[in-house]
């Protein structure tokens, strides 16, 4: 394989483990081997990018970063990948610790390899995601719930079985105890694996196991452990990085309990419910406005309690949703006091856009609509008047509570977003069969709808109609992709960060329009095409991976970028409020620390890879 024996070792390294031999052969053919002598530098901090990418075949390279940070690279690791991705000058010095064998690629050569072998492109995506997370792991101290040690929420004692336990007996134990996993032990102390329901199913369906097969032979997964004193956010990171649902908790090396994704969710919900309960007790719109005005403190608290900004944003969104739901209830009370009575028929009040995705930040505007039940027949004049009064008063009350009227008038009071289910269906059918740029812009906002209040069955029926109409008809999605393409990651020809030129925002980046929204738009297109009912961006991407529609490594890099951009935006808006400024979405890259600026560049590069794939698949030129 190749012209040098060290190339054959690539398949044995952590980076290239599992990579197809054909890809490694191609790497060997495209790369050039050279020897770096002890003490020589591969590149130095401050030097312009050399348009080269390297892979270490043998030896040790030490990367000397600013502020005295040192990283030792091992066989198989890429060197200069960030510079390859963003074409930026070197910010570190790479020195050989002893003689090293290096495989060198030109930009064009490696780019051609990525284009020819999706597996290599996926590997780069995996490294991008890992580097984004590694660079941000220690930058965000966590307090509160997610800063608590694992033992505060773990399940103990650890439910277990012996290696000789049959699949049938293990299943019965899990059913009787109403648990989703068992630790598999050999003897009394040696933990050898974890057993889950999905593992049992896989053993029976794919491994030809029978009810009497010992679990250790067919359904035992390698355990992943976490220390009982580690913080909860650390456990969460492990669960996500290993794509598993359970961790074994250890104390001094011995298994003492179990912690799951559900345990972490419950820990968050317990805290969040306290705030939501207070909101539910609000007796006036002005009281709701007080909660809205305190959103800054609640957002700062959520950010400090969560290691990942994605979770903080979901908490912030749930508070916004609670305020808006209570606003609906108070509006309904007002209508009854005015003598208009209760709703004359079923309805669903929709929330759309960032609210529908549960991705609201400090100051969202209103994006809502109203589905009215078709039964029992055409609306009477009296019924029409009731729903008009309801929508008008609700939009006014939401505005008083802090949620400004939508500049685009995407609100329940607008007849375009206020109609019976049958008329909603007709409108969507027309958009799908006769798409245009206007319907694409409309769809990119409205199609992230979910029930804020009322009859969720109406919402489900509308979503079912939307997904049925889109099946096999991608033209509207193509228009939506073109609408998405009006925003691009702010990267120049050499992948340098590009800032805005207009006088109002000179030197800034619109982190939402040219970053976060692109991820949400791509997730929406893929989800609609696949017929998914999920609206949250993170959940959409996870399901798309599960279905095999998107590559796991690409999605991992995108979720890492999504989290990083959300974190930048939350911190930015919190700081603006602290300085008595109106929160906005514009970031100045030159005001960021060098490390954060580097992560921002790599994040935008990951988004560009996703957008390029999206446009290649759904852009109208693809049809």
Q: Structural class given helices, strands, pairing?
A: alpha+beta
- Provide the low-confidence segments as ranges: none
| Largest sheet properties | 6 strands, antiparallel
Percent of residues in beta strands: 15-25%
Q: Given the structure, what is the number of helices?
A: 22
How would you sum up the global shape? globular
Instruction: Give the C-alpha Rg.
Output: 27 Å
Number of beta-strand segments: 18
Tally of domains = 3
User: What proportion of the residues is helical, as a percent range?
Assistant: 40-55%
Mean pLDDT across the residues is 87
> What kind of assembly state do the chains in view correspond to?
single chain
Note the gap between the termini: 40 Å
Observed structural traits:
alpha+beta; CBS-domain; about 15% strand; about 625 residues; globular; 22 helices; six-stranded antiparallel β-sheet; 18 strands; 3 domains
